[in-house]
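Is this the right way to post structure tokens for a design question? Let me know if I should format differently. Anyway, here goes:
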């Protein structure tokens, strides 16, 4: 399978008439002014020079609400990409937008210009959370937009946020379950951050909003991720991309930001999966004071955890004095093997097998 690469073109706030409580796209995207349509070719050319020739390349208009832009400007942007679609240098176009800026005529235009994927900034499927976040649409509007997008044969992405004003774990899991019913092709999960020059920053300064802790955000995202994977829905990103501006003290005021947020989520999953495997076979195995964990070489860091945290927690939980993590090329990624010796894994649990037991065990 060829590697999929996005060429991102950020159009912060362009076309969006709303000021959502959490949003300052100029800060998040590290872009002050949106590029002109005449700049698009240069952006594409610059990226093409760094991308392997056998990659599947997509131009992605991110940041703003693309379909809320004046139609002539939409066409100008899309026309700028057209020569690269015709030459085969670019395979398709992806756009992000709001659910309330989707209708039949918009979708027909996007189809005409080679757009294949539409990502909807849904954020939540709780009307109360949407209202408190000043999103200006309701859950029903999301369902209507999704129905139209699927009827026009686009790939569908759903972007969700956790930790918004009025949000909680139960609402996040309800949003997850309802999102699953929409059958998106992909999902992104973003913890809410307090960004300077937003209404949320003012609410936070007044003591009226408390962001999630990093541990809370990781755990909630983990449960959402696992539920999506149970239904074979891809989660293509967890956590906001760490741009230089976002990392500066001037931009990020508070919230559960980590430059490797998605890695932290995966580390927790590896911990849970390993603990479940050991507990499920302990009556058959002969573990004493030493346990060997086997993973694919690419999964070593996920199994060990940040600052070897997973190993420390497993020792305490399983009451084993020594746990040694070893790479095993024959194991599929996301699989874990265990043994009482260093010869080979005696018991193996794949991620698919682990997901099968989750509906009965995951709250």
């Amino acid at each position: 399978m060829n590697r999929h690469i996005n060429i991102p073109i950020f159009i912060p706030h362009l076309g969006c008439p709303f000021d959502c409580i959490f949003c300052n796209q100029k800060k998040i995207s590290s872009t002050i002014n949106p590029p002109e349509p005449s700049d698009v070719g240069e952006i594409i050319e610059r990226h093409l020079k760094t991308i392997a020739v056998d990659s599947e390349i997509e131009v992605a208009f991110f940041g703003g609400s693309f379909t809320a832009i004046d139609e002539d400007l939409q066409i100008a942007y899309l026309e700028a990409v057209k020569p690269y679609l015709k030459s085969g240098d670019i395979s398709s176009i992806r756009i992000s937008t709001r659910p309330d800026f989707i209708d039949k005529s918009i979708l027909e235009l996007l189809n005409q210009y080679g757009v294949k994927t539409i990502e909807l900034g849904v954020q939540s499927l709780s009307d109360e959370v949407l209202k408190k976040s000043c999103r200006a649409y309701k859950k029903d509007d999301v369902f209507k937009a999704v129905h139209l997008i699927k009827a026009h044969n686009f790939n569908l992405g759903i972007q969700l946020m956790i930790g918004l004003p009025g949000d909680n774990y139960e609402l996040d899991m309800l949003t997850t379950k309802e999102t699953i019913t929409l059958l998106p092709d992909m999902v992104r999960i973003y913890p809410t951050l307090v960004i300077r020059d937003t209404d949320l920053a003012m609410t936070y300064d007044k003591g009226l909003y408390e962001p999630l802790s990093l541990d809370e955000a990781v755990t909630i995202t983990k449960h959402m991720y696992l539920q999506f994977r149970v239904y074979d829905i891809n989660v293509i990103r967890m956590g906001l991309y760490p741009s230089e501006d976002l990392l500066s003290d001037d931009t990020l005021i508070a919230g559960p930001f980590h430059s490797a947020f998605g890695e932290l989520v995966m580390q927790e999953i590896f911990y849970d999966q390993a603990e479940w495997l050991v507990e499920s076979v302990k009556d058959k195995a002969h573990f004493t004071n030493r346990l060997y964990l086997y993973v694919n070489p690419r999964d070593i860091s996920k199994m060990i955890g940040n600052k070897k945290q997973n190993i420390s927690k497993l020792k305490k939980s399983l009451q084993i004095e020594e746990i040694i993590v070893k790479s095993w090329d024959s194991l599929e990624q996301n699989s874990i093997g265990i043994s009482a010796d260093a010869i080979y894994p005696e018991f193996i649990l794949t991620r698919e097998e682990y997901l099968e037991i989750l509906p009965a065990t995951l709250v």
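Format looks fine. Someone answered above. Worth noting: The mean pLDDT is 91. Residues 261-281 form the longest helix (21 residues).
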